[in-house]
Write a structure and sequence with these properties.
Distance between the termini: 25 Å
Radius of gyration: 17 Å
Order of helices and strands: HEHEEHH
Largest sheet: 3 strands, antiparallel
Length: 131
């Protein structure tokens, strides 16, 4: 959740979620990622769908919140259906999928290098947005 009201609606949650999937699929080599979200979290559901999660099941009226029963929505994202926003273009040039034939240590080394570059780019991007 983006806590500060003035920071909401600017794409930070979408970017963070997409980068999390990028890391899960490309750096860790996972084939799918699952989550659960409650039906009152409309912004969260929108973000998850936007980055590639699909509903895989609903447990109806399973969460009590504010005196009302809400559904629990189970969602999943698959590596085969995921379009990498960052790491696929850096770790595997010309591809958006992980190169599973590359050794884990080589992938980790490239990931560390990439994250260092992203940290520099991210701080620059924040400064530009606030100008």
């Amino acid at each position: 959740m983006i806590g500060e009201p003035d920071a909401r609606g600017k794409g930070y949650g979408t970017e963070a979620t997409a980068l999390m999937l990028d890391h899960a699929f490309l750096a860790l080599g996972l084939s799918n990622v699952m989550l659960r979200v409650y039906s009152y979290n409309l912004a969260g559901i929108h973000v998850y769908e936007k980055v590639g999660f699909r509903v895989m099941g609903i447990r109806r009226k399973s969460k009590l919140m504010g005196g009302k029963l809400w559904d629990t929505i189970y969602m999943e994202a698959l590596a085969d259906e995921f379009e990498s926003p960052v790491l696929g273009k850096i770790l595997v040039p010309g591809s958006t999928q992980a190169c599973r034939s590359t050794s884990p240590s080589a992938r980790l080394e490239r990931l560390v290098h990439t994250l260092k570059r992203l940290s520099i780019l991210s701080s620059t991007r924040r400064r530009v947005k606030h100008m």
